[in-house]
């Protein structure tokens, strides 16, 4: 096995417990765009949100709202506000063992990047709530010049920022098929799905995961 230089980890569902926060924030966001829970469109939209877990939220809202950019941006801002409030109200916990796993990897000389499909402001709210600023070597979110999942940008941007010598020396772990697709597209040698989030093993296997783990806690043993 190629020595791993970088581990790229998803946040919600992989290192951070979701506990339905995305769905709650989505419900508030889509209501701000004029779609209530009683609306006939709501169940299908909710299904799509579940199917696209891990992807950039602005991209999801564009798809749901037929490309209406103004409405999509409005919904995305409402999502950020709702999710941020849930986090600020204390609804944010790490996946058990995630923090220790990151510390263990870094102690072994492996660099770690935390990535998300959320906006940078939402990512920072989570880092604030958990006291995780400085825990990883890099944190990345979709933004100017960096597309969200399933594109390879987040992984490749982390590799560039942290001066990784070869994409084959990267391991990626996440809880959604989008995480898996991102890792494969970036050329990572290890692309592990974890079962602490939204996807089940058959979905992760179908996406092409090289390994499926019960939790991110199992990653150091895989890399050893």
Automatic annotation (TrEMBL):
InterPro entries: HAD-like_hydrolase_sf, HAD-like_sf, HAD_sf, PhnX-like. SUPFAM superfamilies: HAD-like. Gene3D superfamilies: HAD superfamily/HAD-like. PANTHER family: PHOSPHOGLYCOLATE PHOSPHATASE, PHOSPHONOACETALDEHYDE HYDROLASE. This is Phosphonatase-like hydrolase. The lineage of its organism: Bacteria, Bacillati, Actinomycetota, Actinomycetes, Pseudonocardiales.
